[in-house]
Design brief:
Number of helices: 10
CATH superfamily: Vaccinia Virus protein VP39
Number of strands: 7
CATH topology: Rossmann fold
Strand content: 15-25%
Strand order of the largest sheet: 3-2-1-4-5-7-6
Helix content: 40-55%
Structural class: alpha/beta
Radius of gyration: 18 Å
Shape: globular
Largest sheet: 7 strands, mixed
CATH class: Alpha Beta
CATH architecture: 3-Layer(aba) Sandwich
């Protein structure tokens, strides 16, 4: 789930990269990110099997630690995963090795893909669109590498601007002191002084706040974007089964699927 900030300076990109590198060691410990049960694993396999009945070339954009890429590989597909964060990719590679699965993981920018046109049959992105500074340009890049007739699968949610999100923010605020204590430990590991690390964290939050889809896109807004890009067979499916996420849901989550035309 790394971040892809097209049009930003090199220094700004490094700040974003550092943010996700910092999260990598504990990313899978949080509900909504990691795999916590066999029931959860089976639920995702059943979901993706409906979109990939035969072997496909699959690209997982912003793959993070490989949750989605691993599921498609388990289904027998040839899978590539990219993420801006090298530490996310390292963890994804370790998980694939432990599972005995071959997945081509690479460090890369989801809005500037290093692949030829029409390379993949399926492009999937979970919680990535909200991270894009230009969602329309970013998704257009995904469509560039998607073959005609291929399927785009976008998993998103709307977690801000509602009461549940406000409750979540209050919980995070109570953890602020704990985060400050962790800064010292992180700085020792990363070689960044605590004062600089705090500035980096604040800068990232400012960038995140200004994103077009900050807080996540509603399904209607995402469908509008897909229509502007001339996609066909657009469907939205709620993903509100707690089994998929390993937690009770506080905000809407969904899968938007669409087909690239010739």
């Amino acid at each position: 789930m790394g971040s892809k900030f097209v049009g930003m300076s090199r220094d700004e990109t490094e700040v974003i990269r550092h943010h996700w590198d910092r999260r990598a060691p504990t990313f899978d410990e949080h509900a909504g990110h990691g795999l916590f049960s066999d029931d959860q694993r089976r639920a995702w396999l059943e979901l993706f099997a409906r979109f990939s009945e035969r072997p496909h070339e699959v690209l997982d954009v912003g793959c993070g630690t490989g949750f989605i890429a691993l599921r498609f590989a388990e289904l027998g597909h040839a899978v590539t995963g990219i993420d801006l964060s090298p530490l996310m990719i390292d963890r994804a590679e370790s998980k694939a090795q432990r599972a005995g699965l071959e997945i081509d993981y690479r460090v890369g920018d989801a809005s500037a893909l290093d692949y030829e046109d029409e390379t993949f049959d399926v492009v999937v992105a979970r919680h990535v669109v909200w991270n894009l500074p230009s969602p329309e340009l970013g998704v257009a890049e995904w469509l560039r590498v998607l073959r005609p007739g291929g399927r785009l699968l976008v998993i998103e949610g709307k977690w801000a601007d509602n009461q549940a999100a406000e409750t979540h923010r209050q919980r995070k605020k109570r953890l602020k002191d704990r985060f400050k204590d962790a800064i010292v430990e992180i700085s020792v590991r990363s070689g960044i002084r605590p004062k600089r690390l705090r500035r980096t964290h604040r800068f990232y939050r400012r960038v995140e706040r200004d994103l077009p889809f900050s807080g996540g896109p509603t399904a209607d807004r995402l469908v509008d974007l897909l229509r502007r890009l001339s996609l066909a067979d657009i469907e939205v499916e709620p993903l509100m089964d707690p089994t998929l996420w390993g937690e009770e849901l506080e905000f809407p989550r969904y899968l938007a699927s669409a087909t690239r035309l010739d």
